[in-house]
Amino acid sequence: MQKFARLCCMAPLFLLLGLLPFALAGHDYGQALSKSILFFEAQRSGYLPSTQRVNWRGHSGLNDGKANGVDLVGGYYDAGDNVKFGLPMAFTVTMMSWSIVEYGRQMAASGELSHAMDAVKWGTDYLIKAHPQPFVLYGEVGDGNTDHYCWQRPEDMTTSRQAYKIDPSNPGSDLAGETAAAMAAASIVFRRSNPSYSNELLAHAHQLFEFADKYRGKYDSSITVAQKYYRSVSGYAATNNQYYLSYLGNNGGSLGGTGWAMTEFGWDVKYAGVQTLVAKFLMGGKAGNYASVFGEYQQKAEFFMCSCLGKGGGNVQKTPGGLIFRQRWNNLQFVTSASFLLSVYSDYLTSAGKTLNCQSGRVAPSELLSFAKSQVDYILGDNPRATSYMVGYGSNYPQQVHHRASSIVSVKVNPSFVTCRGGYATWYSRKASDPNLLTGAVVGGPDAYDNFADERDNYEQTEPATYNNAPLLGLLARLHGGHSGYNQLLPVVLPMPKAQPKPAPETKTAPAQVPSSAPISIEQKMTTSWNDKGKTFYRYSTTVTNKSPKTLKSINLSISKLYGPLWGLTKSGDSYGFPAWINSLPAGKSLEFVYIHSASQADVSVSSYNLE
């Protein structure tokens, strides 16, 4: 066999799967979960449904696949461009499904399970279309070269929509294997609520698994236009009901599962994810005759966990602010994926009554979850810049996102056609906030020194991606809902999703004492609470909105009955004003500040303001 760098596929693990309370505080993880799911609706391609909540988007890509004689309408744009790349899309579906498999109960409790399942199904509906024959899989629609030459809304795009496929003559084991994993994982998600659809997904997974193993090769050797944008640098080693267990046991070396000790996990380098799932089988007593081989998988999984904690032999790099750092371009994809693995492994260990064995000694499962939480908190604003890297969460988040759809006025507001190059001249070069809020999008994030430039042309830091958000679904559900006492090693039985769609994310608010006719409104809400040493603490979020038609140039707030720290305002004497990053508040806009104390909400009122 020709020698390729190895890529470990997760498909057989999900095909097989077909088979401690933590004190949380500081952030509204439930709100972040709602927003992170909403982002996927902004990334939709195709005919948008009547339940679409991101209303500034319109139908797009309605002729995708037509030139190739196949229906490829639908799916997701993976980032800030208008190309549909199969490999990262499949990984996105895999991670969303894995999130639901592990933490579907918590999602159901927060009212977000149906939305999360809708997000998965939007992806799998497309992947089914992309797999029209057992050994044919379409892996891309559009190409990065022509797409990146233009800056257009998806609704206006005039770029090539050529579709590219893999088949026996032009194989792609990594793409077929990852798509098999996505189908298999999603089949578990829908097993109870939609069994016929689950069986359809499983049939595609089996066929794709066989395709990946029988016709071996790298997808970007066949779909060459993908090389520049999503090069499959790890190569391939696609997987070959006991059959899949035997495959993992017999192919651990060639797959890299027992040989590669990794310090990263993402859409192209999946070893750590495979090793974590195999360790789950081992701890759950499902290893059969392969316990010793699966033990080698687990050793590599624990190498990854220890490296993230800084307690191993080859520790990951971290920024001065404590963020995992792998690379400058879209570093947060590695942060969210690694944090998800830390969270699930913590729960696996807890369920098994075990601890983590690191070079520096034994580590309690709670320490893994605590570190995962610290990474999420960093993303949500607990960092040296006090910046939330989730758009729309908190009061200080990226305003100039590298994203075609959000940076150009909505087609529903101004349907005038935006030309290929005209978009660059008119919209890309604007030094102003995006006209459409890309709620929930997690951008690329800061550099190795916690620095971040909120500029549209800074694609390395301001471009979002679906695979940044996908692992966050499970992690945020876990942090919001707690462990709930469920044994993570037991067979998965998901709750039924609610039949009625949940409206756009909102929270109940308690108005502060400001007349309704006043030009400045203040609303407070308690977002979370926790107990520490017998004392209950509360986190309050306060929103100040300029309801006048003029710009608010300055404001002085009076805050009394405050008995704890406050973030998001600048204190001057006995009053509070705009934070350092806000000079004014345009008409209709809001700012948010938060405070924590062990009492009912503080009294917040407007002392003075200036409108111009």
From TrEMBL:
Localization in the cell: Secreted
Molecular functions per Gene Ontology: carbohydrate binding; cellulase activity
Active-site residues from the entry: H402, D454, E463
Stretches the record annotates as Disordered: 498-517
GO CC annotation terms, alphabetical: extracellular region
GO BP field: cellulose catabolic process
Gene3D superfamilies: 1.50.10.10
Keyword Secreted: yes
Entry EC number(s): 3.2.1.4
Signal peptide feature range: 1-25
Catalytic activities: Endohydrolysis of (1->4)-beta-D-glucosidic linkages in cellulose, lichenin and cereal beta-D-glucans
Assigned protein family: Belongs to the glycosyl hydrolase 9 (cellulase E) family.
Record's protein name: Endoglucanase
Organism field: Rhododendron griersonianum
